[in-house]
């Protein structure tokens, strides 16, 4: 284990070796039921990311399928500003901190929470831009890139979860491994 005085590159390399995406916990590879349970929390960053797709929805009618499928969940989630807060704490306390659940489920729940936090921060940054930038091409580009990135990240994580492997998103996955120890 590297010491605090070691150069940052060596510490990061050692931590990456410790938290390899090929890591298989002591409780073995996840079965189909745990994979399905592990994919459910990714609905949170998905519906948070759908908010940024307004430019895409106007240009591509195929993307409206996402709104058709997840629209009711999106409306219920954002119906009250307390609901996202309660869902976050419930997921964190009931799933992530529950050592009786498999590491795979806890890891994916925490990763979905961190992706959701990243999307909330992106929304805050965009909302605090001057109105001229928000409605300009710059604001549209920022929303579109946030939308595409969020959908891509959720799809990447969902694929790895269904396959039964750990999705490795730089920085996010490292933070997840720090929070969710085997």
Automatic annotation (TrEMBL):
Keyword Plastid: yes
Location, primary (coarse class): plastid
Coiled-coil features, chain-numbered ranges: none
Alphabetical UniProt keywords: Chloroplast, Membrane, Plastid, Plastid inner membrane, Transmembrane, Transmembrane helix
Membrane topology: Multi-pass membrane protein
Subcellular location per the Swiss-Prot or TrEMBL entry: Plastid, Chloroplast inner membrane; Plastid, Chloroplast membrane
InterPro entries: Tic20
Transmembrane segment boundaries: 76-96, 108-129, 135-159
A single GO cellular-component term on record: chloroplast inner membrane
Family as reported in the entry's similarity comment: Belongs to the Tic20 family.
Chain's role: Involved in protein precursor import into chloroplasts.
The protein, known as: Protein TIC 20
Organism for this UniProt entry: Prasinoderma coloniale
